[in-house]
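Per-residue structure
===
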Amino acid sequence: MSEPRQDAAPSAAAAARPASSSLFIVERRLSNVNDRQLTVLLTALTGAASRFSARRDGVRYLGSIFLKHQKRLLSLFAAESLDAVRAVNQAALVPFTSIEPAVELPNLDHEPIVGLPDTDQV
């Protein structure tokens, strides 16, 4: 079994968060949202997160991904607690479906996945 590389540089998400914080994903279901509405939503979310960060409330907005066909917006936060993430999202006044702790998986730099054949030997 191959061990993950220890010398890999930290990811952007890892570099952006303090050592005491954890990652959280906030899910939103957005039906019939257009590009302008999505921009307004992200502006509200970014503004709320910036206000909390300025007060040093231990939460930072890292970005979002919109899954257009599923009509889902997934937003990534680094925070000291789930409650801090909830407070930012409530302050943004944009309803959300769930907030879940997340774990960032290391980039194995194309190392073979355990249980799958090595493509060089197939």
